[in-house]
Amino acid sequence: MLSNLQMRRARLMALSAAQTTAAATAARDAGLEVTDLATFPMREPVSRRAYTIVRLRTRSGMTGYRECGQVTPADLPQALQAVKGMQATAFEVVARALAPLGGLRAAINSALLDIVGKAAKAPVYQVLGGSTKKISTAKYRMSNDEFRTA
Fold this sequence. Notes:
Enolase-like, domain 1, extended
């Protein structure tokens, strides 16, 4: 016989699985599948600073923009392969696939979050969990492989 705690855990897992399935279906139905990655090299006229604008487009036509440092043409096929066909909500999976690309990875990840925020009609900070003003922090310092409270 299952204990009360085991029954509660089983119900919670079933509810979580149902919500995850519903969220994945909603993302697919909302057209959040990435279909296009475009980069636009830019140069500021006065400072001569060079950077790249990254644009992601979804099946439903939503776009996400971000900027990063200069991107080499050799990085683009790898980035396109990692992001094309993925859901915009899979930004963590995409970030792991693009780990060697550095700045381009960060720009694509932020552009995906931009799309998710637009789809949710909410700012990105709320999509990621909301304000952190009321979260308390614990401070520790390390010395001689021990943790001590500060």
